[in-house]
Design brief:
The chain has 131 residues and is an alpha+beta fold. The chain has two domains: 37 residues; 79 residues, Jelly Rolls (Sandwich). 63% of the residues lie in helices and 10% in strands. Strands 1-2-4-3 form a four-stranded antiparallel beta sheet. Strand 3 and strand 4 form a beta hairpin. It is elongated and about 60 Å long. The two termini are 36 Å apart.
Length: 131
């Protein structure tokens, strides 16, 4: 859920009461702490699992079912995918080729087709971490 508060209204609330200001600061700090914890957990996962998690998320939100599988046609380059999961383009290329060899997914220039959604889901939920 997104809550939008104009700068003017926020200023008015903060000036109205120190309790509002304290509550707002606590809320922002809590959200920042949780976000950093999530980033640490995510960054400790193997790149294949991070890619699978991102592909699963993209398939859920933007995937188009076809006879060949779920097509994610967002015009994302390998470089875009690499940035999204925090690896180099060469790593993404290697991971996509691995998924293709296993019959799980194929990548074209600006789209990915997931042939085995269950396998992508299993990989995305894997708790394996880098040693």
């Amino acid at each position: 859920m997104v809550f939008h508060l104009s700068q003017e209204r926020l200023d008015a609330l903060i000036n109205e009461s120190n309790e509002y200001y304290s509550a707002f600061v606590r809320m922002v700090c809590d959200h920042l702490r949780v976000s950093i914890q999530n980033l640490i957990v995510l960054r400790n996962r193997r790149p294949l699992h991070r890619l699978a998690q991102e592909l699963w998320r993209l398939a859920e939100r933007h995937g188009r079912p076809t006879k060949k599988g779920v097509v994610i046609d967002l015009r994302l380059s390998q470089e875009d995918l690499a940035v999204m999961i925090g690896v180099g383009r060469q790593t993404i290329n290697r991971l996509l080729k691995s998924l293709e060899q296993d019959g799980i997914a194929t990548a074209k220039y600006t789209s990915v087709t997931i042939h085995n959604l269950a396998a992508i889901e299993r990989l995305s939920l894997s708790e394996a971490v880098d040693s």
